[in-house]
Amino acid sequence: MIEMNNVVKKYPNGVVAANGITVHIKKGEFVYIVGPSGAGKSTFIKLMYREEKPTSGDVIINGINLRTLKNNRVPHLRRHLGVVFQDFKLLPRLTVYENVAFAMEVIEEQPSVIRKRVMEVLELVGLKHKVRMLPNELSGGEQQRVAIARSIVNRPKVMIADEPTGNLDPETSWEIMNIFEEINRQGTTILMATHNREIVNTVRKRVIAIEGGMIVRDEYGGDYGYEN
């Protein structure tokens, strides 16, 4: 499902944020990306959805080589990826329903299909009763649930989450984590960059640790391994 083959990413300022990374992730896996600040985790994640292009090497998602992908095909690629950020990135003037539906409207899905699917995913994240509310009327945890619903509404094969619990309290973080686990059980491959030691150490999954732009540890059922 995901391959990185000898990937190097060097920024114009000389910083090497990925230094010969090679990794293969199978369909249906749940993978944590961990490491100290400045280790290269964000670059690793950005390479996955073509926010950044590798300087050399190949990033292949579901058979598509992102290094050679033309810029005008990037939006099409992202429609098949679910991406969740720490800061939610919701559209402030749209309701909960409209924020989620927007992801389907841009691919010109039929209104009846949109209505049915949006309500399905809002029920999954526990927000079916708040469809008419605006983002500023929701708690941080509820906003993240909307962001997750939006990211999965088009049934992506891969979901990429960059510090999805970073701005949330512990109880809410666990609620969000339970949603991710359910999405994974339904077959979606999940990559989650996180500093949440408790979640990584409690819900054991594959752990990829990055330091200095290199993978220094890759183990199944691993622990967090760093002091926060």
UniProtKB/TrEMBL annotation:
One GO CC term, this protein: plasma membrane
Annotated Gene3D superfamilies: P-loop containing nucleotide triphosphate hydrolases
Gene Ontology biological-process entries: cell division
The keyword Transport is annotated on this UniProt entry: yes
Principal place of residence: membrane
Assigned keywords, A-Z: ATP-binding, Cell cycle, Cell division, Cell membrane, Membrane, Nucleotide-binding, Transport
MF annotations from Gene Ontology: ATP binding; ATP hydrolysis activity; transmembrane transporter activity
Similarity-based family: Belongs to the ABC transporter superfamily.
Protein name: Cell division ATP-binding protein FtsE
Natural source organism: Solibacillus isronensis B3W22
